[in-house]
Amino acid sequence: MSIASRQGMEVKRMIAATIVSAVALAPTFALAGPEGTYAMTGTNPGDKSPYEGVIEVKKTGETYAVTWRFGADETKGIGTLAGGSGRTLAVSYDAGESHGIALFELQGDGSWSGVWSSMGGETLGTEIWRPQGGATTTRGGAAGSTPASASTPDGKGAARR
Predict the structure, then answer these.
(1) 3-state secondary structure (DSSP) of residue 4
(2) How many structural domains is the chain composed of?
(3) 83 and 117, same structural domain?
(4) What is the pLDDT of residues 60-89, one digit of tens each?
């Protein structure tokens, strides 16, 4: 076999190894973390009244700063990836007069789906975060989002309690 033929085979092997490595590492890249900006929809516990807004997640060391935006209103939280899988995000939040916890699971489409409740709550609300603009974090609210100060249909208070 000639030197040129051997070199050609080596190049082909290197290309094949690179492709195999990229395919094997693809799930790792997909599970890099929840950082980014998301369009959020949810339902309140109890009456299941709907709300929407924008979620911003920033990595802060081993934790994540989570900000819910409902028009001009904000709710802040701190989160951590649970269980080492990178697929479960637990978040504690402070909404002024109420505090609570949320638990989200990474979905196959890159969205996060979960449940939440405020301190003393007996029922769960739901939330889905859909990625906006990939992993790049952006600022600003969503046009038409429901402000947290708006009343729910039953008049019991904030859109996300």
Answers:
(1) helix
(2) 2
(3) yes
(4) 999 999 999 998 899 999 999 987 789 999
